[in-house]
Amino acid sequence: MTASEARNSLPADYQAQLRDDHLRPLWMANVSAAMRAEPGQPLRRAQPHVWSWNTVRERLSRAGELVDVEHAERRVLILINPGHTSPDGVSADSSLFVGAQLVLPGEVTSRHRHSAAASRFVVEGSSACTIVNGERLSMEPGDLILTPPHHWHEHVNEGSEHVIWLDMLDAPISSALDAVYFEGGPRTPVSAQVPERAAYRAPGMLPFRSPNIAPQRYPMLRYRWSEVQQALAALASAGDREHPVHLMYANPETGASVLEAYCYSVRMLRPGEEVDPTLSSASAVYHVVSGEGESEIGGRTFAWQQGDVIAVPSQLPLRLRNRSSSRPAYLLQVDNSPLQSKLDWYREWP
């Protein structure tokens, strides 16, 4: 019996009673399908997709002409996966909000905090800073800035050039769990702002503390691209081409992911290099820090260049290729493997 036949076999008055009582039969196809999936074929909504940075930048520049930051709260264009057809869909993949934010010269955003964990990855401009719980964090292209849950934050552009970065938040997760929280507050006076902490700048070194004091949950809020790029270059020169050049952003005190739901990492593709990442249950979003190449995602090929954003849904084979024969390509990778691992969902396939 088909699902349609099973549905029609129920008396109309019984179906009406179920609707009125907010009940639904599990055996109906639209419900039971969500509980079943073929091995290696998850019931994914997200689709492979590439957002062209040239297009995003053009639309964002137009938004800068049309909308002032006081009315917008944050001047952000959300990257929405084409597989998410709901009007309320705000995901670039299955679990990650990605938006491109523009702050014009002289602009100061409002100060707020929320339950969602957030990060900023700077794409263009170097005249802005983010103030997190009073700590003033400069923003240079390629820098990763963290604003963990419930941390007050605001943005300031004191220069003469615009600044654009990618906002990445776990908002789809907190929204699905009805855990959304938001609070506004007054801007932080300059006199109350403190310099960026310098205690974690030396690799392998931590501030001295008593064994009775637990490690900090978010000890480091800014990861400089200049230092990340140096580390990637050192790894590339020390290794061989059989091993990908891939480094993970980590909590310097615990070695855990910098934000608990996602793994942030950076790949360096050597000139002409092709990489086949491990097939896993995690979904990922890539941002092209620099370079040009192409990705094969589930049998489809997508070209990319500097600034582009790439959605790689769960359980789809992926191949990354650097098309340049002379220059490396750098890609930021954000995936939900830590969240899946905590819930015992994470799997890998050889």
- The number of helices is 8
What CATH calls the topology of the largest domain is Jelly Rolls
Mean pLDDT: 92
Strand order of the largest sheet: 1-20-17-22-14-13
Strand-residue proportion = 25-35%
Shape: globular
Query: What helical percentage do the residues reach?
Result: 10-25%
- The low-confidence parts are none
CATH architecture of the largest domain: Sandwich
CATH class of the largest domain: Mainly Beta
Q: How many distinct domains?
A: 2
Whole-number radius of gyration? Answer: 22 Å
CATH superfamily of the largest domain: Jelly Rolls
| Total strands | 23
- Which structural category do the helix and sheet elements fall into? alpha+beta
Please describe the biggest sheet, giving its number of strands, its sense, and whether it closes into a barrel.
6 strands, antiparallel
Describe the structure.
The chain has 350 residues and is an alpha+beta fold. It has two domains: 49-187, Jelly Rolls; 222-349, Sandwich (Jelly Rolls). It is built from eight helices and 23 strands. The protein has helices at 3-8, 12-20, 29-32, 53-66, 69-72, 171-176, 225-238, 337-342; strands at residues 49-51, 76-78, 97-103, 111-114, 118-124, 128-132, 135-139, 144-147, 153-157, 163-169, 182-185, 222-223, 245-248, 263-269, 274-275, 279-280, 284-290, 292-297, 300-305, 309-312, 318-322, 329-335, 348-349. Strands 1-20-17-22-14-13 form a six-stranded antiparallel β-sheet. Strand 18 (292-297) and strand 19 form a beta hairpin. The model has no long low-confidence stretch (mean pLDDT 92).
